[in-house]
Specification:
The chain is mainly beta. The protein is built from 1 helix and 17 strands.
Amino acid sequence: MRLFPFHSPWPGAEGCRDRGSSTKAYSSSTMQIFDGFDTAKSSRLAYTLPTSYSKGDTHTETRSDMPVKSVVLILLLISAANSQNGAADPVYQNWDPPNCGTFRTGKIYGVVKDQIETPLENAKVVVFDDVSRKVLWRTATDQAGRFSISHVWPGRLRIVFYSPGFRTEDWVVTMMGKDGAFRPKAIPVVLPLPVGDTVAICRPDYSR
Protein backbone atom coordinates (compact mmCIF):
# COMPACT_ATOMS: atom_id res chain seq x y z
CA MET A 1 0.00 0.00 0.00
CA ARG A 2 1.50 3.35 -1.08
CA LEU A 3 1.29 6.31 1.28
CA PHE A 4 1.11 9.91 0.12
CA PRO A 5 2.24 12.83 2.35
CA PHE A 6 -0.17 15.60 3.18
CA HIS A 7 0.07 18.93 5.00
CA SER A 8 -1.88 19.28 8.22
CA PRO A 9 -3.57 22.62 9.05
CA TRP A 10 -2.52 22.25 12.69
CA PRO A 11 0.99 23.14 13.84
CA GLY A 12 3.13 20.22 14.93
CA ALA A 13 0.99 17.56 13.22
CA GLU A 14 2.55 15.38 10.59
CA GLY A 15 1.36 12.25 8.83
CA CYS A 16 0.43 10.59 5.60
CA ARG A 17 -2.62 9.14 3.90
CA ASP A 18 -3.39 6.50 1.34
CA ARG A 19 -6.04 6.36 -1.36
CA GLY A 20 -9.36 4.85 -0.24
CA SER A 21 -8.51 4.76 3.46
CA SER A 22 -8.99 7.01 6.46
CA THR A 23 -5.50 7.92 7.68
CA LYS A 24 -4.74 9.47 11.04
CA ALA A 25 -2.18 12.23 11.69
CA TYR A 26 -0.53 12.29 15.08
CA SER A 27 0.65 15.30 17.10
CA SER A 28 3.59 14.70 19.42
CA SER A 29 2.73 17.76 21.52
CA THR A 30 -0.87 16.85 22.32
CA MET A 31 -0.69 13.06 21.79
CA GLN A 32 -4.01 13.24 19.93
CA ILE A 33 -5.05 11.76 16.62
CA PHE A 34 -6.75 13.71 13.83
CA ASP A 35 -8.62 12.38 10.81
CA GLY A 36 -6.62 13.21 7.67
CA PHE A 37 -9.78 13.37 5.52
CA ASP A 38 -11.47 15.99 7.75
CA THR A 39 -8.80 18.66 7.70
CA ALA A 40 -11.20 21.17 6.12
CA LYS A 41 -13.49 21.08 9.16
CA SER A 42 -13.14 23.71 11.82
CA SER A 43 -13.52 21.24 14.68
CA ARG A 44 -10.87 18.61 15.38
CA LEU A 45 -11.75 14.95 15.71
CA ALA A 46 -9.60 13.92 18.67
CA TYR A 47 -8.98 10.39 19.90
CA THR A 48 -6.74 9.16 22.68
CA LEU A 49 -3.45 7.65 21.53
CA PRO A 50 -1.29 5.11 23.33
CA THR A 51 1.79 6.72 24.85
CA SER A 52 4.01 4.56 22.62
CA TYR A 53 3.15 6.68 19.53
CA SER A 54 5.58 9.40 18.60
CA LYS A 55 5.70 12.24 16.13
CA GLY A 56 5.54 11.08 12.54
CA ASP A 57 3.87 7.72 13.32
CA THR A 58 0.92 6.85 11.09
CA HIS A 59 -2.01 4.48 11.42
CA THR A 60 -4.33 3.53 8.59
CA GLU A 61 -7.88 2.29 9.21
CA THR A 62 -10.18 1.42 6.34
CA ARG A 63 -13.54 3.15 6.66
CA SER A 64 -15.39 0.01 5.56
CA ASP A 65 -14.33 -1.61 8.87
CA MET A 66 -16.06 1.03 10.96
CA PRO A 67 -19.72 0.06 10.23
CA VAL A 68 -18.90 -3.60 10.94
CA LYS A 69 -17.49 -2.69 14.34
CA SER A 70 -20.59 -0.61 15.09
CA VAL A 71 -22.93 -3.48 14.19
CA VAL A 72 -20.99 -5.92 16.38
CA LEU A 73 -21.14 -3.48 19.31
CA ILE A 74 -24.92 -3.02 18.90
CA LEU A 75 -25.47 -6.80 18.81
CA LEU A 76 -23.45 -7.23 21.99
CA LEU A 77 -25.49 -4.54 23.76
CA ILE A 78 -28.77 -6.16 22.67
CA SER A 79 -27.56 -9.56 23.90
CA ALA A 80 -26.59 -8.09 27.26
CA ALA A 81 -29.99 -6.41 27.61
CA ASN A 82 -31.79 -9.67 26.82
CA SER A 83 -29.75 -11.57 29.38
CA GLN A 84 -30.73 -9.04 32.05
CA ASN A 85 -34.39 -9.54 31.26
CA GLY A 86 -34.14 -13.22 32.00
CA ALA A 87 -34.31 -16.36 29.94
CA ALA A 88 -36.75 -17.02 27.13
CA ASP A 89 -40.17 -18.56 27.73
CA PRO A 90 -40.09 -22.27 28.60
CA VAL A 91 -41.07 -24.74 25.90
CA TYR A 92 -43.76 -27.42 26.12
CA GLN A 93 -42.90 -30.36 28.33
CA ASN A 94 -44.79 -33.32 29.81
CA TRP A 95 -43.11 -35.24 32.63
CA ASP A 96 -46.28 -37.02 33.77
CA PRO A 97 -46.47 -40.81 33.46
CA PRO A 98 -49.32 -42.13 31.26
CA ASN A 99 -52.88 -42.18 32.62
CA CYS A 100 -52.24 -39.86 35.55
CA GLY A 101 -55.48 -37.94 35.27
CA THR A 102 -55.62 -34.16 35.46
CA PHE A 103 -55.81 -31.25 37.88
CA ARG A 104 -59.37 -29.90 37.78
CA THR A 105 -60.10 -26.25 38.45
CA GLY A 106 -62.44 -23.58 37.16
CA LYS A 107 -59.69 -20.93 37.27
CA ILE A 108 -55.93 -21.05 36.78
CA TYR A 109 -54.30 -19.46 39.82
CA GLY A 110 -51.94 -20.32 42.64
CA VAL A 111 -48.52 -19.64 44.15
CA VAL A 112 -45.07 -20.72 42.94
CA LYS A 113 -42.62 -21.55 45.75
CA ASP A 114 -39.30 -23.28 46.21
CA GLN A 115 -38.74 -26.35 48.37
CA ILE A 116 -38.45 -24.32 51.58
CA GLU A 117 -41.76 -22.54 50.92
CA THR A 118 -40.20 -19.27 49.73
CA PRO A 119 -42.38 -17.53 47.08
CA LEU A 120 -40.62 -17.09 43.73
CA GLU A 121 -41.07 -13.70 42.12
CA ASN A 122 -41.17 -13.31 38.32
CA ALA A 123 -41.43 -17.05 37.66
CA LYS A 124 -42.68 -17.64 34.12
CA VAL A 125 -46.09 -19.29 33.66
CA VAL A 126 -46.96 -20.52 30.15
CA VAL A 127 -50.24 -22.22 29.22
CA PHE A 128 -50.16 -24.73 26.32
CA ASP A 129 -52.86 -26.72 24.60
CA ASP A 130 -51.89 -30.23 25.67
CA VAL A 131 -52.78 -31.71 22.27
CA SER A 132 -51.51 -29.16 19.74
CA ARG A 133 -48.83 -27.79 22.12
CA LYS A 134 -49.79 -24.29 21.02
CA VAL A 135 -49.09 -21.43 23.44
CA LEU A 136 -52.36 -20.01 24.77
CA TRP A 137 -51.21 -17.60 27.48
CA ARG A 138 -48.11 -16.18 29.15
CA THR A 139 -47.76 -14.49 32.50
CA ALA A 140 -45.39 -14.25 35.48
CA THR A 141 -45.67 -14.35 39.25
CA ASP A 142 -45.76 -11.23 41.41
CA GLN A 143 -43.58 -10.43 44.43
CA ALA A 144 -45.53 -12.94 46.53
CA GLY A 145 -45.14 -15.69 43.92
CA ARG A 146 -48.80 -15.48 42.92
CA PHE A 147 -50.22 -15.95 39.44
CA SER A 148 -53.77 -15.75 38.13
CA ILE A 149 -55.34 -16.18 34.68
CA SER A 150 -58.99 -15.23 34.17
CA HIS A 151 -59.39 -16.89 30.76
CA VAL A 152 -61.11 -20.28 30.46
CA TRP A 153 -60.20 -22.89 27.82
CA PRO A 154 -61.92 -26.21 27.08
CA GLY A 155 -59.95 -29.44 26.92
CA ARG A 156 -56.66 -30.45 28.50
CA LEU A 157 -54.07 -27.78 29.18
CA ARG A 158 -50.40 -28.07 30.04
CA ILE A 159 -49.07 -25.31 32.30
CA VAL A 160 -45.28 -24.98 32.46
CA PHE A 161 -43.60 -23.11 35.35
CA TYR A 162 -40.03 -21.85 35.11
CA SER A 163 -37.67 -19.79 37.25
CA PRO A 164 -33.87 -19.48 36.71
CA GLY A 165 -31.92 -21.82 38.99
CA PHE A 166 -34.81 -24.26 39.46
CA ARG A 167 -36.13 -27.30 37.66
CA THR A 168 -38.99 -26.61 35.25
CA GLU A 169 -42.32 -28.10 36.35
CA ASP A 170 -45.49 -28.82 34.38
CA TRP A 171 -49.08 -29.49 35.39
CA VAL A 172 -51.92 -30.86 33.26
CA VAL A 173 -55.12 -28.92 33.92
CA THR A 174 -58.76 -29.31 32.87
CA MET A 175 -61.09 -26.36 33.40
CA MET A 176 -64.34 -27.57 31.86
CA GLY A 177 -66.29 -30.73 32.72
CA LYS A 178 -69.47 -32.22 31.29
CA ASP A 179 -71.57 -30.13 33.64
CA GLY A 180 -69.67 -26.90 33.12
CA ALA A 181 -66.69 -25.35 34.84
CA PHE A 182 -65.06 -27.02 37.81
CA ARG A 183 -64.77 -25.35 41.18
CA PRO A 184 -61.80 -22.94 41.31
CA LYS A 185 -58.85 -24.51 43.08
CA ALA A 186 -55.34 -23.15 43.56
CA ILE A 187 -52.41 -24.95 41.90
CA PRO A 188 -49.72 -25.62 44.56
CA VAL A 189 -46.56 -25.27 42.47
CA VAL A 190 -43.18 -26.14 44.00
CA LEU A 191 -40.03 -25.74 41.90
CA PRO A 192 -37.20 -28.00 43.09
CA LEU A 193 -33.49 -27.39 42.69
CA PRO A 194 -31.97 -29.05 39.59
CA VAL A 195 -30.01 -31.68 41.53
CA GLY A 196 -30.24 -35.44 41.60
CA ASP A 197 -32.32 -37.79 39.47
CA THR A 198 -36.05 -37.36 38.95
CA VAL A 199 -38.74 -40.02 39.02
CA ALA A 200 -42.01 -39.40 37.18
CA ILE A 201 -44.98 -39.98 39.46
CA CYS A 202 -48.66 -39.04 39.26
CA ARG A 203 -49.39 -35.97 41.32
CA PRO A 204 -51.73 -36.57 44.26
CA ASP A 205 -53.63 -33.41 43.27
CA TYR A 206 -54.74 -35.03 39.98
CA SER A 207 -58.20 -36.56 39.51
CA ARG A 208 -59.20 -39.16 36.96
